[in-house]
Amino acid sequence: MGKKGGSKHLKRLPAPTSWPIHRKEFKWVVKPRAGPHPLNSSLPLLLVLREVLGLAKDRREAKIMLSRGNVKVDGKVRRSDDYPVGIMDVIEVLPLKKAFRVLPSGGELLLHPIGEDEKAFKLCEIVDVTTVKKGHLQIHLHDGKNIIVKAEERQSGGDVYNVHDLLKISVPNNEVLAHLKFEEGVLGIVDSGKNMGALVEVAEIARRPWPSKTMVILKNREGNQFETDLDYVFPLGKGESWISIPEESNA
Q1: 146 within 8 A of 215, measured Cβ to Cβ
Q2: Is 246 domain-assigned?
Q3: Which residue in 47, 126, 130, 240 is deepest, having the highest Cβ count within 10 Å?
Q4: Which position has the higher pLDDT, 35 or 8?
């Protein structure tokens, strides 16, 4: 009988390049379980506690910390060491009284320290919008969350929520605090590709005949322009970023 399902194991060499791990020190690394973020854009909590923060020297210590409810992700206690955390997730380590936001920087995922005011919300990109029963609108976010907009709350002049728009939501209640339309002039961060971590401003949105997809022309901090796939840009705000950004992020 053939094998069913994917592998439960992951070797270090083919692990995502965004993981801050030593490739040849050991053979195996923990594989994130299915969750809100895909494998190539997430970190398992074990790596966060052991490799990134250095709070545990091995998997056993990390499991003990998690079993005691010492770690929250987006305001909820997570106890699985293979739980995947991804871009914009808020991680709170209760014994340290510190909070961090997962951000791309220099081709890797890092934990950016944030204050009390920032840990109460996160930014989410809209990846799809569908109409469900009774005319309600269902907004699908990049981290697997879904938000329902009641039919009576939808504007008569047309829906204001579109794919690639930015939402500022509270955690853990998932209430929409602000909405930003994705357009020229929006500030963003590149979350995939060779420019991962670059802080940019959208200079132009253009449809290219080849490849048949929407591309964006971006301008970095130095004023240089480059082109990339629209899906590689995560909006952060307009005029100024809605969140604090690490100073070491490449521009």
Answers
A1: no
A2: no
A3: 47
A4: 35
